[in-house]
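Re: that chain you flagged

S.,

Sorry for the slow reply, it's been a week of failed gels. I finally had a moment to sit down with the sequence you sent. For the record, here it is as I used it:
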Amino acid sequence: MKLALGLSEFSDEDFRFVKQLGVDHVKIGGGALMGPEQRGRLQEQKLRELQDWLGSYGINIAVVLLPQGRETQYWNARLGRPGRDREIEDVCESIQVIGEASVPVVEYTWSIVNVWGHVPGRNTWGRGGARVKRFDYERVKDATAPPGEGASGEAMWDRLLYFLERVIPAAEAAGVRLACHPHDPPTPTLRGEARILGTVEGLTRLVDSIPSDANGLNFCQGTITEMGVDVIETIRHFGERDKINHVHFRNVRGSVPRFDEVFVDDGDVDMLDAMRTYHDIGYKYVLMPDHVPGIAGDTPRGHRARAHAIGYMRGLMQAVGATGSCTPTETD
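Prediction finished late last night. Pasting the structure tokens below so you have them in one place:
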């Protein structure tokens, strides 16, 4: 298994930051490699140019995240609207481009609402007054969907399986593994949408629906914790079946209906036990920090907080005998 960081912007300073933390792999947002509306087919030339730029720092792209926002690449597919077949073709062609570039994992989400409903503002509920995201289902449980966006569980499953039946063969042909992110927050419903991927049972149904090495999960450990389940047993449940293709390694205090997204070393899960479990099951893809608290003096993109998370993760990896595959590289 390997350490990674997510990049939303690309610059020499960003790449130096990644490398200075001893990280050799990154996740990038595929929308940055499309047009300005993040629709259509991922552009091969843009991907190759970014790979070359990162490669000059000894950094590899380990994961590409397909656009997840409103009106982006496969928005109509999530809504079951006309135009979804063209969007699914765009996804399949993008996966082909990603596979030809030897990127092993493509992450996607299957939500209309996306991540929504957290308490707004600068909430200083974390350790030492750090700003953390809090979710309280009581505040938002009665929120209604915008016109045409509510969806039952049956509708969400029908649309998802329609998508996967077409996309998984493309991923198999490209030699790429898919990593579906669970619904975050994992409430029964949210803003009129049934959250079909907000339980272990739902995620199990997903990976069982189409048997394929390409059909797997982004095991967002924070979201799994929010479900109120045994996280260590859940890592084993999916990991021993080789269904974990990406990991968001974060910690949470509490679970649905109310939780805080805290520092990686300050939540309810024994993170050393979690890291040991990934190592025991032979997990071989990347682990990366996900949401991080806002800490004193940090940048808007959380450089200090991400450095803290990476340092903690590296220590855990070394404690269980996994180094994270960092190799010394000199750059100008």
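What I noticed first: The chain has eleven helices and 13 strands.

Talk soon,
D.
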